[in-house]
Amino acid sequence: MKHRLLAIPLLLAGLNLSLSALADEFNADDLKRWQAGFMSTVKSGEKLFHGGINNPNTMSCDQCHPNAANTHPETYPKFQQQLGKVAVLGEMINWCIRNPLKGKPLALDSDDMAALQAYITWERRGVALAPGKH
Amino acid sequence: MSKYSRRDFLRKASVLAAAGTLPISLVEVAFGESHPKNFTFAFISDSHITQTKGNNFVENWDRGLRRSVAECNLLDPRPDFIIYGGDIAQLGKPEEIDHGLDILAGLRGDVRYVMGEHDYYLDLGSHWRKRLGPERYSFDHKDVHFVVLNSILTYPEWTHKQWDGGMQRMLQMARLDNPHGSPFMVGDEQRQWLQADLAKIDKATPVVVFSHSPIQKIYKGWNFWTDDAEQVQALLKPFDKATVIYGHVHQIQYNQIDNISFHAVMATAWPWPYPSTYKQAESHLAKLTVPMNRADPFFERDATGWQFIDMHSGNVDLRYVLPGNTSRRVAFDEEAGRPMDTRYQGAMARIPPRNHY
Ligand SMILES: [Fe+2]
Ligand SMILES: [Fe+2]
């Protein structure tokens, strides 16, 4: 009992030390660089969305979703009754690639999928999260 | 919120569709209480026929156009004529225009055509004109004066830029949300023609204008817009009753500006979201429009359709034929002095799937 009580402040002191030693320091330049990295992914997503996805129907996402309208990223994950389960945004992106476009679905963890989601979500910035909403 | 779920709604609607309930009987009712000068015409628009390779075309868009042709042929009594509202083709290729016209050749009755930007910007309308004749004209039918305009022209500096061929220009104009696009307009020369054409018409004669773009300013970012809209409206102002019916927006819209009623028509190909659903910009859709239902992506014909139009007492009564959805009727309300949805105008009369957000 006594031992333990003593151990706590020691442990905390140790943690503090290691925290300050490990703390990730970043400055305005880092923030700028990360923002630029994000925006360049948004840009590649915008390109994919506007005719950058090869498909036998020669269709593009913006043909039905100008400025990514009606893609509602803020509502995901949500129950998609036609899929019979709770789906993430990427699954519905793949649904549209497979169906109207007749194309090949993207791996959910692929760079292209990240770029498409970055663009779609960027166009929807400022809208409150509404998970599950229909 | 309500006892209707979207699924129930869709299921009921598809049962109706399966039973083959075209609203044909509704036309007969309209005729039953009609005046000898009443007549109907049909309106098909925006089929966006897309050539993928050689003789292959996107089947989805072919099916939409074929369906509207087949349904339109079932109308009884027959409409006096049929208007095609523009965008036969997706990229203005002769193969696309020809393929679309082959399908439209199945229509029973006279068809008159409006030029869309997708028909125009590859070769500045030359193949379209070769097949269909001039893109602006007027005609009279049962005491109504009809005018067809090419409203998808734009500033000559844009049209005649140093393009890397017509296809590059076409692709730029085909992208709805293109920040480097250029606004539609009727243009000086055509407005002068319109003024001269209307000068001969008695101001008590109802005038109906067919255009591809809205002849009003809704949202410039997607070219739901005509840059010289006010000047064209001014030419229609002296008439007791004027109506503009337009394609391009792929959705239900209606409006009243002074003496002019505005109606948009559905596409046979695909629906577009309302501009208000894009949160980064402001748009100006008339408040009185009851929006169409959000489209179900799992049913490819949802929120597409065609319409037939009852012309009576100089006003139009527009019926939207919507596969898998209850048909809608937007009619001129004499008391209110503007078009109204005959069923869903009141906010309480709407059902959940109508929400766009
Ligand atoms: Fe169109
Ligand atoms: Fe158009």
Total number of helical segments of chain A?
Answer: 4
Decide which structural class fits the backbone of chain A: mainly alpha
Oligomer: heterodimer
| Biggest beta-sheet profile of chain B | 7 strands, mixed
- Mean pLDDT across all amino acids of chain A: 89
The dominant shape of chain B is globular
Spatial strand arrangement across the major sheet of chain B: 5-4-1-12-13-14-15
Supply the CATH architecture of chain A.
Orthogonal Bundle
Order of helices and strands of chain A: HHEEHH
Biggest sheet of chain A, strands in spatial order? Answer: 1-2
**CATH superfamily annotation of chain B:** Metallo-dependent phosphatases
CATH class bucket of chain A: Mainly Alpha
Approximately how much helix is present in the residues of chain B? 25-40%
Number of helices of chain B: 10
How much helix is in the residues of chain A?
Answer: 40-55%
The ligands bound in this entry are: fe (ii) ion
What does this structure look like?
The complex is a heterodimer of chains A (134) and B (357). With 134 residues, chain A is mainly alpha-helical. Chain A has a single domain, classed as Cytochrome c-like domain (Cytochrome Bc1 Complex, Chain D, domain 2). Chain A is 51% helix and 4% strand. Chain A contains four helices and two strands; from the N terminus they run ααββαα. In chain A, strands 1-2 form a two-stranded antiparallel sheet. In chain A, a hairpin with a 4-residue loop joins strand 1 and strand 2. The radius of gyration of chain A is 22 Å and the shape is globular. The termini of chain A are far apart. Chain B has a single domain, classed as Metallo-dependent phosphatases (Purple Acid Phosphatase, chain A, domain 2, 4-Layer Sandwich), CATH 3.60.21. The longest helix of chain B has 15 residues. Chain B starts with 5 loop residues before the first helix and ends in a 16-residue tail after the last strand. In chain B, helix 4 links the parallel strand 4 and strand 5. In chain B, helix 9 packs parallel to helix 10. At the A-B interface, loops of A face loops of B. One fe (ii) ion binds next to helix 5 of chain B.
